[in-house]
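Example complex used in Figure S2.
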Amino acid sequence: MFGTKEKFNLQRAVFARNGSAFFIFEDYYSHLLRLSSYKPAASVGISPFLFNLRLFAGDTELPYTYFSDAASLAMNSDKGSVQFVFTGQEQLRVRGQGVTLRIELCPALPESGMVACHGVLPLADGVWEATFGTYGKFLFVPLKGNIEAYYPWNREKQIYEAVYFDFIPNETGKFEAAIHEDLVEFAVDNVYPSFAEVVDKSLESYERFKHNYLPPAPGYEELWDYAIYQIWSHRTKAQGGFLEPGILFQYTWVAGVFSWQQSYQGMAMLNNPQEGWRQICTMFLYQDEKTGRVPSYISYVGGENPGIQPPFQGFALDALIRKAGDSFLTPAECERMYPKFAKWTEYWLQRRNAGRGDDVIAINNPNESGWDDATIFKDGFPVQNPDLLALLIVQMEMTARLARGCGKTAEADSWQIRSQNLLNTLINEFWDGEKFVTFANGRPVDSMSLICYQPILLGDRLPQHIIDKIAATLTEEGNFLSEIGLCTESLRSPLCDFGPNTFISGRVVAPPHLILTTGLNLAGKKKEAALIARRFCDHVKEKGVILGFAPYDYYPLTGEKANIFEGPIASDGWSWSTWCACCVLMMITAIIPEAE
Amino acid sequence: MQLDLKKMPFSRHLSRHMVYEESDNLGAGWEKGLYLALASEGGISFIGGPAAGPKGFIKVTPTRENLGQDFTCQASPFHIQLQTDTGEVIFVLDGAKVLRIAGKNTGLKLNGRLGFGENAVTTSLGIELLLGDTVYLIKAQKGKVTLDSYWDLKGLRRTDPVIYVEPDPDGNFELIIYETDDTYELPAITDSFQLCAVDAKADYQNFKATLAGNFSEYEDFFEICTYNLWTGLVDFNGKKLAPSNKMSETKIYTAEQAVIALAFQDTAKALDLINTIFSFATPQGLIPAWVTKRQHLYEAAPPLYAFTVSCLIANHNFNGIDEKKLFALYEAMAKAVNWWLTRRTDAAGAGFYAYYHECGWTGEISHCQLPAAAPDLAAYLVLATESLAKLASILGKADEAKTWEEKSRQQLNFLTGKLWQEDRFVCLNSKTGTAYPLSGMLNFLPLILGKRLPGNITGILAENAKILPWEQLPIIPATLIIMGLYDSGYPSIAATVAKTLIKSCLHNGANDARGKEVEAGAFYAPGACAALLALGSLIFGKKEVL
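Predicted assembly (1142 residues):
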């Protein structure tokens, strides 16, 4: 799948596994592979907890290439090779032939030195324990050959000068070892199945996970594999701060399970709506009992972010039901989830209420809409923005659906009426004939943001003239539509910006594609939806499962050159992400096939 | 008592609110002046690294017609008064959660700072600074508050807020500042500022009554220590624990909690603290070095709790303590001690540090090759196992008591045998047997065993202790050593060196960097204050006359 000579390497993607915290990636500058763990959630841009993977023959360092399939990664040199595989039990397995593998602590910033290492301890039978403070602990266990550790201590500075572990072959030229990781204390069972067995299990797990998704439209088979790999490999198990499996956004820059992304993930699992529903519900495990707030993200170390993300669960559930039926919504499920949905919906309607005497809400922070730098926010706060109103309309409707599913008819009716009323308000007060308008401090914001069209997610609930207008706008070449998909700010806008560290101010970004193409599809504009989806997915197929792209290296409005930075940064210019992966899966398994 | 706000914050028991004077001692570029601050809860952000620190939160400037005014400041433990040419401003804490500020013939300008992801908004409740889990709500009871801040769309953040406080037509303003969260459960407000101060004083006096005290010397200094211990404790999931320093280092170190327990003469309170430490242990019994609300560091720290429990038994024998509580203590402590006896003890029964940091004072053993059997660890284990034997005996577990007694004897024999070489203690490499002589405070820490040590050893240590650099030693181990000297039969030497230690704190504060550059407001660490109070009680405590 990934390799030095493959279509995609590990500079932007990572080699990882479902239920394992280890990951390996290629350093952009040195081209060495590097090993780390996502558990401490340390960004690779600054983390002191990164390990170079180097090969040696005697004292001579060997250049290597690498190749990985879904389960194992091989480093190949002229003298021999090394293979890695991860288990789902906090264990990395490695074996080699003809070479020595060096795993060397090497921080992102040289000035960090060996600060991450708090000590190395030789144990019985050639085993080494190394402790890295809040970053965790590693246990190096030789199974064949031996492991030598080098960790000179600087007495004066009270810090290690270097830390590395050499995996040295035995007399037959082979070595094999296990590396355990933990953040607390090791509970090692000393059970080491064969390397091949671990590889098989890992592959089995990946293949099994594929069954969550419908087959792709022809021509997208390879992208389907990559996208599913991305999600499978970023799926946590119930451990640490995670009460259930969740899907991490990334490993390398922001290793968190983000609230609304879990719903994006769930709605794409159309071949297993039961699992899709579980995925949509998973963040309710962390819901604040008093307030109903669902936290914006969860990380391995636990605790919760105090912020919120948009109420996306209703839209995801609606899409899941429409595409895969509602067999998973048993009365018991409705009984379980109705109060949670209701409390979360009320959280939004009460705590963000705009004070108009109805259910229109207003926010004071763009992050709560999910669109951090969209130009709908250029005139300040508080804003009443139609993208969130649309989500709340369907959120209330789905709350009604759950209430009805467990026999709470009166409550269901009440939610349905409120949903309909807010829909009427949205149409009557926020549609200006061209787009949905955001109001900042009561005044309309003159914005050419793609987010003005997000209410299309309401699908056939909207009047036909609005649907037609939005479909026409979104498929008009050179306005929002580019060769690679929809720009998040009109190409005709003077505020269009694809520069580094921008998100929704111009770049072509995955999540709005899921929302808008699903909305168009649900509104009956299946061909228009597929056209947009193909533009984006064709680009991802070539460039990788990356959150966003600059559509051009210049601004069509002015001809001015755009500042595009290709190097490693945390914004959407860099990492492969699961958020893009699920958006792509929704489009290639549902939106595109349904138009054909 | 007057507070020097450059050295310690005005605060209150269990409160995160603080008011201090920034003097930028470290040259970090802080603007000097009076600040409101909020103790951090030690969170970490999802991209790693610390959350916004507690310091430099809001700079306070009295104003007249929007121009800054010079002022003088008088701070007592229970209220602060600013005086300008034309008016005055008073600060009190109304319980732990509410800071109240009133002004006459003056306004205020509050310059705040926001970290990534934080926000400042005006709502129907007032001005809200949304700081992670915390809502810092500023409400004008009298006068008017306005917020000047906007969202920087490209910077993806809110600009630092400036809050203007204007008096009403009568020249008065009054602010109620709540430290709350998104439940917005706001406490009731006390009728008057005076009553707030009276309530704070009563709370302080009640707290003081739970401590060992009644000092014959250095009364003012011990009063400051008491105040800083009172303000240093915070609510941690319903338990009262002390961060290392509410101003500068908000991790809660488990070993320091054991020292804080030493300061209490109320045995139940001390036991609560000790049991809280044990409640953080892993299933195997490892007690994390520090905890925050979001993360624990699972590395071993020296078992200082052994000394505290030993003192509690010696002083009170747990009279009047519920047997259930004692049983819980016994079980939890046995698990923690067994962690050391199984994971950090060699085949010969010698306890060792596997990593330098486990010693607590890395520099003391950084010349030793690891793993290192160390005399301080052996001493702690002597006390821990002896205490467990006594607890087992109190609980009627005679067989277990015998086993613990035997273990205690083994540890003591090892300490006084193999670890005592040529008139000093050594560290021994557990694998090679190489001895590394100790000359620093670790050589003296076994004095905590008091008369359990042979007289020849204590005699040599007592003599050599006279020339230790007490002005520079970390306060907690220094106090333990001095208490050990006292218990070993050297009260005069103990009193002399205790005075040297305390004198070094009089102007420089109770902190391990005293005499060097210390952050503003961070001169008194609660752990050090507690240790000094325990020491003071032992050496300068007025003996009751019957």
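The first strand of chain A starts at residue 2 and ends at 3. Chain A has a mean pLDDT of 96.
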